[in-house]
Amino acid sequence: MATIQWFPGHMAKARREATEKLKLVDVVIEMVDARIPESSRNPIIEEIKGQKKQLILLNKVDLADPSQTKRWNDYFTSQGIKVLTTEAKDGKGIKQVKAAIKELMAPVFEKNLEKGIRPRPIRLMVLGIPNVGKSTFINRMINKNQAETANRPGVTKGQRWLKIGNDFELLDTPGILWPKFESEEVGNKLALTGAIKDALLHMDDIALFALSQFKLDYPEYLKKAYRLIDSDLELSNVDLLMLITKNLGFKEDYEKASERIVFDIRSGKLGRYTLDQAPVSLTEEA
Ligand code: G4P
Fold first, then answer.
1. Residue 55 has pLDDT above 70, yes or no
2. N or C: which end of the chain has fewer CB within 10 A?
3. What's the pTM?
4. What would the pLDDT profile of 110-168 be if each residue is shown by its tens digit?
5. Does the pLDDT at position 6 exceed 50?
6. How far is CA 133 from its chain centroid?
7. Which family does it belong to (predicted)?
8. Who lines ligand 1 at CB under 6 A?
C-alpha cells in the first residue's frame, strides 16, 4: 500500500473516519504485527473504541519468535483482552477468529433474546496501522461467494458491508491509524519490520539498529547468516556492519549491505524474531 506521510491533518482525518466507522460495528478487530505487538499499536484505539467489544490479532506470527508470541498472548489475556494469533497471508487462524467473535457477542445476544430481539449478523471492522495485514485479513475473512448487503442509511458513501455467511458483516475498508512516532526506537522497529516503508530514516541507520538488537537477542542468526564468529559480535555496530559488508562480498559498499540486512530481516530469512519484549504478565508473576 502507498505510504502516507502522517501530518496532523491526516491524523485528525484518520481518527474521525475510524471513530465514525466504530459507531456502526459490534466488534472492533485490532490488528498488530506479532513481531512488534507494542510498537505497532496506536494508543488512540483505547480512547476511540469506547465500550465496543475488542479483539486483538497478533498477525504475521509466522515471522515472530514463538516464545515471545506466547508471552504476548498471556500478557493481553491477563489484561482482560481477547487475543488470537493469525497468519492472514496463509489464512491461518481465521476459523478461530470467527468463533471468538461469536463468543464475545454471545452474552449480548442472550440478553436480547430475553427481550424478544432475534440475533442478527455481527458487524465488524478491522483497525490498525499500515502494513500489519488488514487487507489480507479482510480478503481471507470473506469467501468467494460473498455478497454485499444493501447500503445502510448513515453509512459513508462508498462504504460497503461484506457479508460473511449468515453470521457476520464486515466493513470492506479497514480503519487506518498512524504508526506511533513516540521515540526513535519505536520508529526503528517500525522501519525494520516494514511498517513504515519510506521512513525518514536511512537504511544504514536501520541496519545498525538491527545489528544492535540482534546482537543481544538473536546472535546466532547473525553468525549463521553472515559467517561471523563469537568475537565478531563484540565489535561496535559500525565495525560489525563493515565486516558483514566484506563477508557479503560488497567490499566497502555498506549501503548495499545495509539494504541486504534489512531485507533479510524483514523477510524472515534470518529466523523468527520479536523486537518488543512482552511485559511480565500477572499470571507469570504469580
Ligand atoms: P495493510 O492492509 O494492513 O496495510 O496490510 P496488507 O494486507 O497490505 O499486508 C501488508 C503485507 O504483509 C503484504 O505483503 C502481505 O502479504 C503481508 N502479510 C499479511 N499477513 C501476513 C502474514 O500473516 N504473514 C506474513 N509473512 N506476511 C503477511 P507485501 O510485501 O505488501 O506483498 P506480498 O508479500 O504479499 O507480495
1. yes
2. C
3. 0.92
4. 999 999 998 899 999 999 999 999 999 999 999 644 444 444 444 455 679 999 999 99
5. yes
6. 7
7. Belongs to the TRAFAC class YlqF/YawG GTPase family. MTG1 subfamily.
8. 1, 59-60, 62-63, 87-89, 128, 130-136
Instruction: List the domain range (segments joined by +) for residue 254.
Output: 202-267
Distance from C-alpha of 283 to C-alpha of 286, rounded to nearest angstrom: 5
132 is in an annotated binding site: yes
- Round the average pLDDT of the chain to a whole number and report it: 90
Task: Please report the pLDDT score of residue 284 as a whole number.
Answer: 60
State whether 19 and 157 are in the same domain: yes
| Ligand 1 atom with minimal separation from the 136 CA | 7
Which residue is listed with cell 476511540?
48
Residue 274 lies in a domain: no
How far, in Å, is the centroid of ligand 1 from the Cα of 133?
5
Give the Å distances, CA to CA, from 286 to 72, 85, 283: 16, 24, 5
Residue 180 lies in a domain: no
Q: What is the pLDDT of residues 7-29, one digit of tens each?
A: 889 999 999 999 999 999 999 99
Rg (CA), the chain: 21
HSE (CB half, 13 Å, CA atoms) of 4? 16
The span from the CA of 214 to the CA of 220, in Å, is 9
* Alpha-carbon gap, residue 31 to 35, rounded angstroms: 12
Q: Average pLDDT, stretch 82-108?
A: 96
